[in-house]
Write a structure and sequence with these properties.
The complex is a heterodimer of chains A (473) and B (68).
Chain A (H helix, E strand, L loop, with lengths): L5 H9 L5 H18 L3 E4 L1 H16 L11 E5 L26 H8 L3 E6 L33 H8 L5 E6 L5 H7 L2 E4 L19 E6 L2 H11 L29 E5 L9 H16 L3 E5 L4 H26 L6 H7 L7 H9 L1 H13 L4 E5 L8 H5 L3 H12 L3 H6 L3 E8 L5 E8 L4 H13 L18
Parallel strand pairs in A: 2-3, 7-8, 7-9
Antiparallel strand pairs in A: 1-3, 4-6, 5-6, 5-10, 9-11, 10-11
Helix pairs in contact in A: 2-3, 5-6, 7-16, 9-11
Chain B lengths: L2 H12 L6 H25 L6 H13 L4
Classes of the chains: A alpha/beta (473), B mainly alpha (68).
Chain lengths: 473, 68
């Protein structure tokens, strides 16, 4: 069962084929061994998790189910608050921070029956697309531990890819769900900006932060997002729109769906090997019935700059007291991304937010151009080594970091939903992925398309150390 | 407020004395580039909306469904 996905695990528990306690014990053992080796883990709640699992087994034996995640072990990025448990946010500044309330997303997972095993690693304060963390150690890719796992939700993607948990929550402010999902060969969904409550999650940028699932398949993501999405009175920015049945929409059909493939910006600097795999994924979607249309892109450098301004100012406002009092507890690469926000004028910040509507309209008109979804690469280069992103050649490291975020960061300013989907392996043996981007609140359509793709491919089922080639079903 | 007073004020807000000179110069270059980009974009796209208009738009598109 541990090799199966979240839905299969939930079904096995429901049918009594395996106990929640056995699954929980196996996941905890994997997190303690392999998880520690890869720097994927921060805090495990072993006794509390086993106690919860045993309670779920008693309930099941009595014919009671709490919901669609009954008895399924999960663990999450260490920035979701749970009352009484420390939440580090990947920084020594928060090393002893113990919240007195629980994040809405964790409460919703609890209510659906999930078992929370503990917290997973992340880049310092959720900055860095690689998994770099000076304080807790660089997280490592389960496919090859010389390589970056992506970030900032590094531990979440590592743990899901290496079969330590069935799924994990991450956050995405510039690609922090999609980079690690792509680099580790798993599926990651960044929902529409207001779709999931951020209450009780450590903030990076209030206007851009999104919470979403990382799981092995689009179907697993569908189950999770249905649980965590929806209006929350404790997050007044959360949408009042009803949450559709994401899982029920997975019918395998792409007939009538129009998928746009924008060129120019999204093909700039695209590695040839990555390009071939990304183009292969378009062919699979086409074979499934989707109509593919070529489109253009608006000025994405502008979109990226506006997003950077919003993020820098909002992060600076959050971090200013710590930057003053605990300056040396920041890695320089993190500090240098926050501090410019201290010097951006308030009028420009408001203008950057005020342009958001017009820029979104322009993107919908240009990149979508009447299509339902947009198809993009996830990363423009093969997953780099840790040495390539931290080595003495600063210019090369900067170029590599920019390549990792090239196709993801603009989507956060636009606020659109996007999913990263495994698409094969480059010759260095590391995963490659593509993204689908939807119109606002089109998560169900995104996941339907991703699931249809995964019915024809096996990349998402392949685990580290057990890799084969493309195996159409 | 004269220049010295302004600098003292900025330091109470930003604590910029603690930031090394090289980093400050790098930030200044970034901020100038940001300002210029936004200035040009604002001229072209005319941001007459208040920021909340964006949220209203995505809600409206979501309500209309994927064809919105």
């Amino acid at each position: 069962v541990i090799e199966a996905g979240l839905i299969e695990a939930a079904r096995a528990v429901e049918r009594g084929e395996v106990t929640s306690e056995a699954l929980t014990r196996e996941c905890l053992d994997r997190l303690e061994s392999r998880g520690r080796d890869l720097n994927a883990v921060i805090t495990l709640d072993r006794e509390a998790a086993l106690e919860t699992a045993r309670a779920r087994d008693v309930e099941r034996a009595a014919g009671r189910s709490r919901g669609p995640l009954h008895g399924v072990p999960l663990a999450h990025k260490d920035l979701f608050y749970r009352k009484g448990r420390r939440s580090t946010y990947g920084s020594p500044i928060r090393d002893s921070f113990v919240p007195d309330e629980t994040a809405t997303v964790l409460s919703r997972l609890d209510a659906a029956g999930a078992v929370d095993l503990g917290t997973l690693s992340l880049s310092e304060f959720a900055f860095s697309p690689t998994g770099y963390n000076r304080h807790f150690g660089h997280a490592r890719n389960p496919w090859n531990d010389d390589h970056v796992p992506g970030g900032s939700s590094s531990g979440s993607a590592i743990a899901v890819a290496d079969r330590m948990v069935f799924a994990a929550l991450g956050t995405d402010t510039g690609g922090s769900i999609r980079h690690p999902a792509a680099a580790c060969g798993v599926t990651g969904l960044k929902p529409t900006v207001t779709r999931v409550s951020r209450h009780g999650a450590g903030p990076l940028s209030h206007s851009l932060d999104c919470i979403g699932p990382i799981a092995r398949s689009a179907a697993d993501c569908a189950r999770l997002v249905s649980v965590i999405a929806g209006r929350d009175g404790r997050d007044p920015t959360s949408s009042t729109l009803p949450v559709p049945d994401h899982e029920g929409a997975l019918d395998g059909s792409l007939a009538g769906l129009r998928i746009a493939v924008p060129h120019s910006y999204y093909r700039d600097g695209l590695d040839r090997e990555v390009e071939r795999l990304v183009d292969d994924s378009i062919e699979v979607l086409k074979e499934r019935g989707a109509a593919i249309v070529a489109t253009a892109t608006p000025d994405m450098d502008l979109v990226n700059t506006l997003g950077q301004v919003v993020m820098a100012v909002e992060a600076a406002a959050i971090h200013r007291p710590w930057l003053r009092d605990r300056r040396e507890d920041y890695a320089e690469v993190v500090r240098s991304r926050i501090e410019p926000g201290l010097f951006i004028s308030s009028t420009r910040y408001v203008e950057a937010l005020s342009l958001r509507r017009a820029v979104l309209c322009e993107f919908l008109e240009t990149a979508f151009a009447g299509a339902d979804l947009v198809h993009l690469p996830a990363l423009t280069v093969p997953v780099p080594t840790i040495a390539e992103t931290t080595g003495p050649d600063g210019a090369h490291a900067s170029r590599t970091l920019a390549a990792l975020t090239h196709c993801t960061r603009g989507i956060n300013y636009l606020g659109l939903p996007a999913v990263s989907i495994p698409a094969g392996f480059t010759s260095n043996g590391l995963p490659c992925a593509f993204q689908l981007v939807g119109r606002p609140f089109a998560e169900a359509m995104l996941l339907r398309a991703a699931d249809a793709y995964q019915r024809d491919t096996q990349w998402h089922r392949t685990a580290p150390g057990r890799r084969g080639g493309r195996q159409p079903t | 407020m004269n220049a010295d007073e302004l600098r003292r004020y900025l330091n109470t807000v930003h604590d910029s004395d603690a930031i090394p000179q090289a980093a400050l110069q790098s930030y200044a270059a970034q901020v100038v580039a940001f300002e210029e980009t936004i200035r040009l974009a604002a001229r072209r796209l005319r941001p007459e909306d208040e920021p909340a208009a964006y949220v209203a738009l995505i809600e409206e598109l979501g309500r209309k469904g994927v064809d919105g």
